[in-house]
Amino acid sequence: MSRRYRQEDSKVEVRGFEARHYDTLMNLITFGWYPKFIRQAIADLGLQPGEKVLDFGAGTGRNALLMREYVGENGTITALEIGEEMKAQFTKKTATFRNIGLVDRRIDEPLPYESEYDVVFISFVLHGFVQEKRDIIIQNAYQALKPGGRFAILDYSNFDVDRAVWYVRWAIRKAECPLAEDFIDRDTKAMLKPFGFERFEEHFYFKNYLRLLKAYKPIKI
After folding, report:
1. Cα-flanking dihedrals φ and ψ of residue 21, to 5°?
2. pLDDT for 155-169, tens place per residue?
3. Is 10 helix (H, G, I), strand (E, B) or coil?
4. Which residue of 20, 157, 164, 176 pairs with 168 in a disulfide if CB–CB is 3.0 to 4.6 A?
């Protein structure tokens, strides 16, 4: 982790053709694996009817629609997204659901939410920020959660990239956001603990290279 990364190195804010066709491209480059994977990951969130979800970097709305299947009519999903192409797709896909709302707001700046949500969800976004901004995002999540709520991070797990299978090494170092390897090299749980998160649950996918990490905000007695 000796290299000094800049936020300008990030590819997390997808634009243009890639943004307009994001879901289709994800399906194609994963040979149809991604839709099954994301459905399983959303199931592993353990969402309950009536829960309130804050979706950081909500993208096209695919995840929000899947989460709605679990929170039902009485739950709510508040989605934060700044990409114009992503917002357009999100709005089109979720227009008929009154309990899904879209807010044009950055997640790497202080947010106004406080003890409002049961779940904060972030999917393949946290790795695309420099550590200083990751810390802001984590603080935002902790602040937004109710006591006992969970911050669910779907992203790369922590592993030795040098010892990964060749196609994972290639993807991380040639195709992925340059900040991804920095994220992988860090201990994500250790990243979360200073902010107050105490209990962790993990679900692993794709030969343990991907992980859903759930971190809980403690209930203060």
Report:
1. -120, 30
2. 999 999 999 999 999
3. coil
4. 164
